[in-house]
Amino acid sequence: MATLRGGDLSRLRQLNSLTAIGALRGAGPLTLSALAKRTGLSRPSMKEVVDELMQLGWVEETPPAQGTIGRPARRYRFRASSGYLVGLDIGGHNIRAALANLNGEILAETRQPVRPDTPVEERLAAIERTVASCLALGGKTIADVWIVAAGTIGVITPEGRIHYCAAIPAWTGLDLAGRLREMFPCDVVVENDSRLAARAEAQRGTVRDASDVVFLHVGRRMGAALIIGGNVHRGFGAAAGEIAMLPQAQWFDAPEHLQNCSIIPPDTSPADAAGYTLAAARAGDPVALAAVERYVDDLAVGTSAMVLLLDPQVVVLGGGFSRSADVLLPPLRERLRRSCIRLPDVRASTLGDECVVTGAIDYAVAHLDHQLFTPDVPLPTSR
Amino acid sequence: MATLRGGDLSRLRQLNSLTAIGALRGAGPLTLSALAKRTGLSRPSMKEVVDELMQLGWVEETPPAQGTIGRPARRYRFRASSGYLVGLDIGGHNIRAALANLNGEILAETRQPVRPDTPVEERLAAIERTVASCLALGGKTIADVWIVAAGTIGVITPEGRIHYCAAIPAWTGLDLAGRLREMFPCDVVVENDSRLAARAEAQRGTVRDASDVVFLHVGRRMGAALIIGGNVHRGFGAAAGEIAMLPQAQWFDAPEHLQNCSIIPPDTSPADAAGYTLAAARAGDPVALAAVERYVDDLAVGTSAMVLLLDPQVVVLGGGFSRSADVLLPPLRERLRRSCIRLPDVRASTLGDECVVTGAIDYAVAHLDHQLFTPDVPLPTSR
């Protein structure tokens, strides 16, 4: 049999640790034998891996099962509560926070409305309040938090600075990661909100079965994200998915067809305007139906560009307008059938408004796992 | 140390075989110790791997180095000439064939012109003639060939059938892989020509350093291919890269600006028309320069869609028009700078007209390597 040496060995050890954590996450307590069976590793190797993970505080021994004859086998579980994760969705109209354990199980959620023109310092203060109330709701303090993962709208540099943000003009140029690090004494990561939503959809939403996905993040703003070969595609400068910036894609102003439909009562809040049009279309109003047709015409151009280019297995309609998928999906499918070579499966998101904050939690979990792979980064240890 | 078992073991063994073949390819004869050093494997593991590869006919022992004191160490080399590969580029206007050894080193190339309206059976006969003359030129027969890899224009199913081909209308619906298998008594694979050209560019061309690439395959026809995370992206139904099919991308008729410029002398062959315009633009002719501007305007729309969506490290201008990259790249860069968030590096192909046939050879090499990873496929053995 071939033997691994040197660099291969430590990579293999890390892979084994991750495999063990993966097997323990979500499962009840497992014996070494059960764990070895699930991971395909030998029992002695499994023992070594588990001992190391226990030293790091990631895994703990549980009391033996009651009433067992003879000496009961030791059982181990992932210490999902040895640390906590905070997910943030910083949008134009809402700040959302979620608190989760290390399994990504969400324990508390809070939301506070803001406006696209809310000044930067006020928006940052709203973020701090939303997180504080989420921690209080979950009975934790910021000292319990290992990672804050924030999603926001706009083009974000790999370092977490806002390169450009059309939706929140004051956001452009802000060192968001830096400001959040001043606010929270833990690891902070920042990512584009559409990419986080796509990640949530792949992890716990409607495309758990697909590895090539175009995610449409549509609401009052238009966004997109790509999953290619099972990975969320970031791009060389972390700027992928910005098809809305191409005038010919007809995306930028597309929501106006729904937001400014003539049937909307004059006192309707902008937050409810598109919903009014979509509801009226569902009820058969011809003016609303015509507005929906124009909206889907535009939506289909950018979507066709992505489908023709990537030939994905699935297109997911996500974001705020996905609540009206029953109205939007049939005409979207019909247009894609005409313009594309192969019509992908077109599905509605099942995560709704929580898609970004949920994806932020999943991103934090992935970031934590990634630390296992990076030898120079000290692993967080249980307090 | 952790021990691998079961499925892991055979995967590891295959990985070791590939690593060994990779180290031997292109290198001179190597001793077991040198090979172990290069691969990071232990000498005993290396011995096992080499023995197996010798049994399969992939590796051979060479005579010991002359004049060595004491018992000379055995040396091994990859048997690049134990089999041969044929690459094919089946275009609208030309059939090209290349013969290579198992290292992908090209030993002979032949070309025969055809027309887009050449009937299917005539085109297939031209393919057979082009391959026969290429084999004769290289001093081989079809019995020496392990794999024929064919690239052709159009949307091709994963099984090698032509789903749709605008450039060669009679091609649509043809079971190309089936017809080539009737013609050649060996393994046959078929792939889209732009994807093969992109592969060649990544393997031996101008983007050996990049893993996220948009490849523009531009000439009398417009095509594109994507390299994402180091892999040529095929798409779920093998139909990726077809941005030219979207009218709003302004690609389909773009070459007409160069093909039908008013300064082209009336007796110019269509094969030379665009080249005439590009040469006149290089010399400063204002009418030709205006035609180039219009062409680049259109080229930039589809290219911007891809750049905004994927944020690649590099855009490569390949295909027939890449010979005029000096005329085309400056205005293309200028437009991308205006329309995109981040201007990628924009480079010209270095492979020219041979890009598809070269990529077909590289695809055949990859297909051969892939067989090592697929336990149920019997490995080709030396005759």
UniProtKB/TrEMBL annotation, chains A, B:
InterPro entries: ATPase_NBD, HTH_MarR-typ, ROK, WH-like_DNA-bd_sf, WH_DNA-bd_sf. Residues 18-64 form the HTH marR-type domain. One of its GO terms (molecular function) is kinase activity. SUPFAM superfamilies: Actin-like ATPase domain, Winged helix' DNA-binding domain. Keywords: Kinase, Transferase. Belongs to the ROK (NagC/XylR) family. This is Putative NBD/HSP70 family sugar kinase.
